[in-house]
Design a protein that fits this description.
It contains 2 helices and 16 strands. The chain has 202 residues and is mostly beta strands. It folds into 3 domains: 76 residues, SH3 type barrels; 60 residues, Nucleic acid-binding proteins (OB fold (Dihydrolipoamide Acetyltransferase, E2P)); 58 residues, OB fold (Dihydrolipoamide Acetyltransferase, E2P) (Beta Barrel), CATH 2.40.50.140. The strands form 3 sheets. The chain has a 6-stranded antiparallel sheet, with no helix packed on it. It has a 5-stranded antiparallel sheet with strand order 9-8-7-10-11, with no helix packed on it. A 5-stranded antiparallel sheet has the order 14-13-12-15-16, with no helix packed on it. The chain is flat. The chain starts with a helix and ends with a strand.
Length: 202
């Protein structure tokens, strides 16, 4: 059984507050029961009226970005965030399953919440899992990945890297991207995970 000191420390951690004066990019805060990540903020002191803070926030639940303005000094519950290195195991249609390579703890996330990231992940790939207040909340993937082409129309003779035209290609993860005509099945391509666009042949 845990001692009362540990429970008290947990309670204080959960109750940690942060004011707009302490904002830093990357902070996670609880705004009216919804968790947001602070992307940008700007302190404004108008000639008349009270100071305020303009922010750009990303909602943890669905990734939507919103603009919000708060009064200077307004306080929020601070969400404890942690990146934990995990191995992607599999997705079963409802959940995506991950495992800590050291402790072998397994965590799962609703598959529809991380569908965009799963397009670029192979079983056993290592990723950073974002934990908010100890609960898994998202997957951090690299801005570019290298994956092999599992299906595409045959390349055409004479095509060069600067040749015109593209064709769809299915990658080993099941994602479809447009690639230059000279790319063939078995080629490894580099893809920008933010835009889903082909970058180069690896």
């Amino acid at each position: 059984m845990r001692d009362s000191g540990s429970r008290l420390a947990d309670t204080l951690t959960r109750m940690a507050v942060i004011s707009t004066n302490q904002f830093k990019s990357g902070n996670h805060i609880d705004v009216e029961g919804t968790v947001f990540k602070v992307l940008e903020f700007q302190h404004v002191k108008p000639g008349k009226g009270g100071a305020f803070v303009r922010t750009k926030l990303r909602r943890a639940g669905d990734g939507a970005v919103i603009d919000r303005t708060f009064r200077a000094g307004e306080k929020f519950r601070q969400i404890q965030s942690e990146n934990r290195r995990m191995q992607f195991l599999y997705a079963d249609g409802s959940s995506a399953h991950f495992m800590d390579s050291e402790s072998f703890d397994q965590l799962e996330l609703p598959e529809d919440g991380v569908a965009a990231e799963l397009r670029w992940l192979r079983p056993n790939d290592e990723v950073d899992l974002l934990l908010l207040d100890g609960a898994p909340a998202g997957v951090q993937i690299p801005t570019a990945v290298e994956l092999s082409v599992s299906e595409t129309d045959p390349g055409l003779r004479g095509d060069t890297a600067s040749g015109g035209g593209t064709k769809p290609a299915t990658l080993e993860t099941g994602a479809t991207v447009h690639v230059p005509l000279f790319v063939n099945v078995g080629d490894v391509v580099r893809v920008d995970t933010r835009s889903g666009e082909y970058v180069s042949r690896a």
